[in-house]
Design brief:
Elements: H1 6-15, E1 25-32, H2 37-43, E2 49-53, E3 61-71, H3 74-87, E4 94-98, E5 113-125, E6 128-136, H4 142-154, E7 171-175, H5 178-188, H6 191-196, E8 199-209, H7 216-226, E9 232-238, E10 241-245, E11 250-255, E12 258-269, H8 274-286, H9 288-305, E13 309-314, E14 318-321, E15 325-336, H10 342-348, E16 357-358, H11 360-370, E17 381-385, E18 389-394, E19 398-401, E20 405-414, H12 420-430, H13 432-437
Antiparallel strand pairs: 1-6, 2-3, 2-9, 3-5, 4-5, 4-17, 5-6, 7-8, 8-16, 8-20, 9-10, 10-19, 11-12, 11-18, 12-15, 13-15, 14-15, 17-18, 19-20
Helix pairs in contact: 1-4, 2-7, 3-10
This protein binds the ligand C=C(O[C@@H]1C=C(C(=O)O)C=C[C@H]1O)C(=O)O and magnesium ion.
Magnesium ion binds at residues 266-267, 293, 412-413, 426.
Enzyme class: isomerase
Active site: 199 (proton acceptor), 249 (proton donor)
Protein name: Isochorismate synthase MenF
Length: 441
């Protein structure tokens, strides 16, 4: 008889798992009730904790807890995907991300690349939630694996309401300063520099220091409520090391051999008045500087996809309206060659010129030489990878939540025609949503 308590139901499935089923990857699942997945994560004791929801309306929501296995390189992740695919049977979802610059991963706990196969997974899709326990038997002692899984189940806590976001006072510091920013923009837009490097995406770290930072899960939950048409993600390695974000930009989505990606670059503010807002959208679409920002992105994506695909197709430029900004976007789709892997895609596509620049090596050299803050996972990739399908966001519009400091990141594509003050204001519009949640709007 099946118990109505999902944890008891999973324990029962684990206790009655017969010897012959102990092969490769196994997922034990049971239906459950959950109000807020971030609230469930926030109530747990285990780490790592991870949240992922893709951008499409109706996309599945995932909360992941603990790791059956973790991967610190794309090669290791791909090898595991291949191993399990060869064995057949049900295939797992892996979640995680990569740093902007694998040569400089920097952030403690995060590393250059971290993907995990979760021990416990809570998934909600089309109104139905399921709690799953993942197990591996191919590369470890079965009894130890079962004991570890049982310990994780025993450590599960009930969902709790998320704490309210209390109003706090924050001390703000920007790196670089506006003065230094202006000098960098001057260097990048110097005709000599533009000749070899037409675009550099410069970024700023805004540190907000306070006595007690809010729960990253409470913050993400509030943030995602106002960030429709965006990806929503969070990862927490330890109590004082979390990274959350609501990015509007897709790195790619792969379903079998079909790949979709996009060039999202070029920005203008929003206006409350609908007519004025439309006028701004028209201005953005017709603007030379913003069109160049977007062109650098799609040209590189097309060039990179060409050798990996049978055909690549790009749609028309259009406007994407977010809460505080609007962007130019072009959708791209491609049919991948049979042998192309996520490892290859994640090795080739990021950092796109939406967050790095063009050409990549020269833009990265400028960034490494000038930016003194650590980008870490800001402007990296974050998402879900599986044998059948994968989807990753570009990790922008994000926050690193530490012990006493919240670090917000924003970048702007600097090209011919960029004005330092306008670009600085563009950075502020890109952090406006999270700033207003923190009472700093
Ligand atoms: C780098 C960021 O965003 C990128 C830069 C944009 C721009 O400069 O117009 C727009 C969208 C993204 O391509 C960011 O939000 O941090
Ligand atoms: Mg811009």
């Amino acid at each position: 008889m099946q118990s109505t308590n999902p944890i008891e139901a999973l324990k029962h499935q684990l206790d009655t798992l017969n010897e012959t089923a102990r092969k490769g990857f196994i997922r034990l699942s049971t239906s459950c009730q959950v109000g807020n997945l971030a609230g469930w994560l926030n109530a747990q004791q285990l780490f790592p904790r991870l949240y992922w929801k893709a951008r499409d309306a109706g996309a599945a929501e995932y909360a992941a807890l603990g790791a059956v296995k973790a991967f610190d390189s794309l090669a290791a992740l791909q090898a595991d995907l291949a191993t399990l695919a060869d064995m057949g049977g049900e295939q797992p979802d892996y979640f995680g991300g990569t740093a902007f610059d694998p040569r400089a991963p920097e952030w403690q706990h995060f590393g250059g690349c971290h993907f995990l196969l979760p021990r416990i997974e809570l998934k909600r899709h089309q109104g139905k939630a399921a709690l799953s326990l993942n197990l591996r038997f191919d590369d470890r002692c079965p009894d130890a694996e079962i004991a570890q899984a049982r310990a994780c189940l025993a450590a599960l806590e009930k969902e709790q309401p998320l704490p309210r976001l209390l109003s706090r006072t924050y001390q703000r510091e920007d790196h670089p300063s506006q003065k230094e920013w202006a000098s960098w923009v001057g260097q990048v837009t110097h005709p000599e520099h533009l000749r070899h490097t037409p675009k550099v995406v410069l970024s700023r770290e805004t540190s907000l220091v306070t006595a007690e930072v809010p729960s990253p899960w409470a913050l993400l939950s509030r943030w995602q409520g106002s960030a429709t048409d965006c990806f929503h993600f969070g990862i927490q390695f330890a109590a004082q090391a979390a990274f959350i974000g609501c990015p509007p930009e897709r790195l790619y989505k792969r379903e079998g051999r079909h790949l979709i990606t996009e060039a999202l670059a070029g920005t203008i503010r929003r206006e409350r008045d609908a007519l004025q807002d439309q006028a701004l959208a028209a201005e953005l679409l017709g603007d030379k500087k913003n069109s160049l920002e977007n062109r650098c992105v799609y040209q590189q994506l097309l060039t990179q996809l060409e050798p990996l695909s049978h055909h690549v197709h790009m749609g028309e430029a259009h406007i994407v309206k977010l809460r505080s900004v609007q962007h130019i976007r072009r959708l791209i789709d491609a049919e991948l060659h049979r042998e192309v892997t996520d490892q290859q895609l994640l090795g080739a596509l990021p950092p796109t010129p939406a967050v790095g620049g063009f050409p990549r090596h020269l833009a990265l050299a400028f960034i490494r030489q000038h930016e003194r803050h650590q980008r870490g996972w800001y402007a990296g990739a974050f998402g879900r990878v599986s044998h059948a399908s994968s989807e990753l966001a570009v990790a922008i519009r994000c926050a690193h939540v530490g012990s006493e400091t919240i670090r917000l990141y924003a970048g702007a594509g600097i090209v011919a025609g960029s004005q330092p003050d306008e670009e600085w204001h563009e950075l502020d519009s890109k952090i406006a949503d999270i700033m207003s949640l923190l009472g700093m709007g």
